[in-house]
Amino acid sequence: MRSKDPEREGEMMRREWLRGVLILWILALGAGVASSGPRVTVNFLSTQLNPIQEAEWVRRELLPPLEQEAGISVRFLPEEYGAFVDRLIAEQKARRVTIDLAGTLHGDFPILVANGVLEDLTALQNNLSARKDRTFIPEFVRLSKMGGIQAYIPWMQATYLLAVNKKALPYLPAGANVNALTYEQLRQWGENITAATKERKLGFPAGPRGLFGRFLHGYLYPSFTGTQVQNFRSPEAVEMWRFLKRLWLYVNPSSLRYEFMHEPLLSEEVWIAWDHTARLTPAIRGRPNDFIVVPSPRGPKGLGFITVIAGLSIPKGAPNAEAAATVIEYLTRPQTQIKVLQGVAFFPTVREASGMLPAGPERVLATGVTAQATARGGKTALLPIGLGARVGEFVPAYLDAFRAIMIQGQPIEQVLERQARVLNDLYRATNAPCTPPDPSQQPCQVK
């Protein structure tokens, strides 16, 4: 008789235990009854919302309604990224798990999955997605599956998009849909405005502390080449840089010193600006009736855009997994996600939240964010992972190409060959994998 594998048997028993916990949670939630017995405390470790003001807002504003409703306590434990991962792995190896709920960015999850830290939350995701008020953005659900499991439940998002002064709308190219622009239509729009006003009203944060590098690697490259890294020096990339030269004819020259685009938007130096949502927010909140927020344009390969996704997970062996699932259900409610948007400017991961917002700046922003995240043909680009202490070398590889091509006038092909070597050296040294939308490869390399 073949001997039993104790590790396999233990894993099967553990999975059955978690399945039972989730079933009990679902039944209890459906009955609308909080658990009886001693009040449990959920230890919630998070790299997000950890600045002092945000953490206090979580404790005083966000969590108390849940604690009163469900009869549980939540201990919110802000943590830095490296220490967050180290603690979860160490607890798992020691088999002394104290954390019930873990929240962090997408890029932290691959290492946690590789080290066997996380429970498979497929049953929980399916239950939440089946609710009438809980339509998760499909791309986020897809990205949250890794290593054969549902590693996390999508929690919050941030991104970059276009803010548009309504004064620009009369100059929109014929037949163009402002919510589904192509890059060529954006160029034509800028040309139309310049012809009418004699001013260059497109703007980008290309100053020293601006985020223009994100536009290059996370928006232009995926939209024109389908990748962030692998097609860096491809013929499609050469065409992309040629297009950028044509677009730049209608970009405000002060873009090379702009760092936060809300300022030139409010002064009306520019009418159309691309930037991070947090850096556009002051303009939208200051004059919500004057602006709309729309998705970034699309190119030949689709609509490339960066999403910064935060997710919620449950470590294996969490002592209060059932209560942790209750916290996840609460944090993904549309009403809760609206509260988070209004309190700390992170955007919803469920579609229903945007439609429930009252008219005002948050609704303007959330409508644009949701439209971009759910756009047909979207190519979600994630921030690089696995580069460790050398992550700061990634964006400069693209910005150096921009300066050489656009400012110094160096030949495109020569610049791309040189910067491709920089990227390949970086990825070989760190053995870091590619991130979406690039096909999986480790180390990631320019073809």
Write structural notes for this entry.
The protein is α/β, with parallel strands linked by helices. The protein folds into two domains: 6-158 and 308-378, Periplasmic binding protein-like II (D-Maltodextrin-Binding Protein, domain 2, 3-Layer(aba) Sandwich), CATH 3.40.190; 159-307 and 381-430, Periplasmic binding protein-like II (D-Maltodextrin-Binding Protein, domain 2), CATH 3.40.190. It has 18 helices and eleven strands.
CA-based shape: globular
Oligomer: single chain
Low-confidence stretches: 1-14, 27-36
Q: Tell me what portion of residues adopts beta-strand conformation.
A: 5-15%
Distance from first to last alpha carbon: 52 Å
| CATH topology category name of the largest domain | D-Maltodextrin-Binding Protein, domain 2
The CATH superfamily title of the largest domain = Periplasmic binding protein-like II
Level-1 CATH class name of the largest domain: Alpha Beta
In total, how many domains does the architecture comprise? 2
